[in-house]
């Protein structure tokens, strides 16, 4: 449903009339009332321009509904708690915290250069840790015969961790 200019204009005029009567009852100067009227008129036109271009469809309404089901991953424990496969969880729990921190920072979108500055490690050691984890996860995948579709609970975690790991 689009913006109904006439309907909104009638509402605005009624509101301004009530406001003007109130201001006159409070003995406000006519110049101030006129300035207020001009300002409010400009704001009304601006809102009309914005709302007149908005196309509210069912898709945008549904996209604006808050999504509370997805848990944010902020720590290594959050990352591990999102893993549904018990064997993979136990396997990743044995990996050193520094490597898991690197993976977590990669999921957050940090580059290897930024991670090396944050953790005070060289670029090569970060690449080695990621490479070793990839190798271990590939071996784990072969040994445990798990499918990627049920490795991890969260789709985002699954995609990010498997991308980094493989």
From TrEMBL:
It comes from the Bacteria. GO terms for molecular function: DNA binding; sigma factor activity. Pfam families: Sigma70_r4_2. Residues 97-137 form the RNA polymerase sigma factor 70 region 4 type domain. This is RNA polymerase sigma factor 70 region 4 type 2 domain-containing protein. InterPro entries: RNA_pol_sigma70_r4_t2 (IPR013249), RNA_pol_sigma_r3/r4-like (IPR013324), WH-like_DNA-bd_sf (IPR036388). Gene3D superfamilies: Winged helix-like DNA-binding domain superfamily/Winged helix DNA-binding domain. GO terms for biological process: DNA-templated transcription initiation.
């Amino acid at each position: 449903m689009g913006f109904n200019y006439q309907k909104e204009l009638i509402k605005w005029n009624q509101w301004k009339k009530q406001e003007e009567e109130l201001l006159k009852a409070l003995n406000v100067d006519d110049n101030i009332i006129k300035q207020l009227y001009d300002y409010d008129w400009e704001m009304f036109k601006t809102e009309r321009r914005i709302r007149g271009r908005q196309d509210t469809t069912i898709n945008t309404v549904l996209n604006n509904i808050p999504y509370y089901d997805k848990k944010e991953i902020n720590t290594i424990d959050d990352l591990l708690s999102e893993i549904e496969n018990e064997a993979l969880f136990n396997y990743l729990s044995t990996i050193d915290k520094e490597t898991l921190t690197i993976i977590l920072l990669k999921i957050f979108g940090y580059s290897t250069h930024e991670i090396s500055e944050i953790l005070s490690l060289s670029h090569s050691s970060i690449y080695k840790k990621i490479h070793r984890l990839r190798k271990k996860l590939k071996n784990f995948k072969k040994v445990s015969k798990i499918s990627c579709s049920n490795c991890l609970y969260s789709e985002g975690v699954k995609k990010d961790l498997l991308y980094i790991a493989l």
